[in-house]
Amino acid sequence: MSMIRLLAVIRKETIHITRDLRSLITAILLPLVLMVAYCESLSLDVNNIPMVIIDYDKTKESRDLVDRFVSSGYFSIVEYVDSYRAMQRAIDAGRAVIGLTIPRDFGKLINTAEKRVPLQVLLDGTDPNRGSTANGYTQVIAQNYSQQMIMDRFARLGIIQSAVPIQPRIRIWYNPTLRSKNFLVPGLVAMIMAILAALLTSATVAREWENGTMELLISTPISAFEIVLGKFIPYFIIGLIDSIMIIIVGTMYYHVPIVGSLALLALLIVLFLTGMLLLGLLISCSFRSTLMANQLAFMVTYLPTMLLSGFVFFIPGMPKVLQYLSRIVPATYFLTCSRGIFMKGVGMEVLYESFLFLAIFDMLVIALTIMSFRKTLDT
User: Fold this and answer.
1) Please, which residues bridge with residue 70 across strands?
2) Measured in Å, how far apart are the chain's first and last C-alpha atoms?
């Protein structure tokens, strides 16, 4: 390998990148735009569930029950109505997800031990995740309220309260507040890097064919390895800048802490970024149209990363076929590393399998890219 020829290719590619300032600015700003857009719009937290209420009782007890829903922070009262039809209209129109009906004599019945008090709850199940979450919150609030009423009744009767037989003491590891941003940001680092890196390099070789400069390039004594490496290095630097920026935004703006080793995270970013950039180059070597190369790069990175890497959907919950497919998606392994370092603070003793896969993937894609680059005018 000649360093002079390599530096000449790097200089040529750098001039081309800096000449097209709009593409350069887009390449640098796009990760930030994607990070903010996904973090602001994609939230797994279920708070302020809109609720509509029919309170036929209007007593201290009914208001106390409603206060428990409001003070939990999970529900927000959007409307008080006086009929079942009005409640149905609110749910049909999407103004409310849950409807609570408090019957007449609720306050009177709940202070007696004669029978159970019916409490009707209507849930909009069109969104299963939000519906099941609202159902769980409602069950817990109702049970806590019932338990408090029973304890108050025992206290009025002078009965000594016995201890609850089972009292679970739950300790949540790694993300004690269950904040969804802590889960999303490490995943977004993987997704944005996968898409952007492949798109950055997917047009580099195809563009040479479109501009008619490939004939000049292949007429020189430069080797395929020098061309691939020379085109790779400038985009690798841009990719590193992008990675640093999205991590800074994630940690400083969205306050997602990095518990583990920054050095290990940097090493894995280099491995993953190298693989994705070379995957884009491999695609670019296979097409003579930048449009086709860009479209294929987007398809082979965005869809597998979004659907199969575990970014949103739980891999063990997928059908077996998709679980096997997820094992050949590089983002699956980087996502494991990213979340492990960000949230759990684990090291190489846990992440070595993912590290090995990314290293093998890099070597494989380097070999394929060099082999696919042909210094010939044949199609």
Assistant:
1) none
2) 26
What would you report as the CA-atom Rg of the chain, rounded to the nearest whole angstrom? Answer: 29
Q: Which residues contact 280 (CB under 8 A, 6 or more apart)?
A: 197, 198, 199, 200, 201, 202, 204, 293, 297
β-pairing, 75-80 vs 98-102, is unpaired
Token output for 81 = 């109505």
Compute the distance between CA of residue 34 and CA of residue 188 in angstroms, rounded to an integer.
9
Nearest to 334 by CA among 283, 270, 239, 262: 270
DSSP letters for 157-181: HTPPPPPPS--------S-TT--HH
Q: Is 174 left (phi over 0), alpha (psi -120 to 50) or beta?
A: left
Q: Which alpha helices (H) appear in 20-105, and where do they start and end?
A: 21-41, 60-71, 84-92
Backbone angles phi, psi at 120, to 5 degrees: -85, 130
Q: Residue 122: what residue type?
A: L
Question: Is the pLDDT confidence value at 271 over 90?
Answer: yes
Rounded to whole angstroms, the maximal C-alpha distance in the chain is 99
Amino acid code (one letter) for 124:
D
- Between CA 202 and CA 277 the distance in angstroms is 8
Cα gap 320→177, rounded to integer Å: 32
The whole-model pTM stands at 0.79
pLDDT in tens, 131-142: 888 888 888 888
The pLDDT tens digits of the residues spanning 218-234 come to 777 778 788 888 888 88
Q: How confident is the model at residue 376 (pLDDT cuts 50, 70, 90)?
A: low
pLDDT at 263: 93
DSSP state of 127: S
pLDDT digits (tens, 9 = 90+) for 153-184: 777 777 666 666 666 677 888 888 778 888 88
Which residue, chain included where needed, has tokens 């009767």?
Answer: 157
What is the distance between the alpha carbons of residues 290 and 303, in angstroms, rounded to a whole number?
20
Give the DSSP letter of residue 212: T
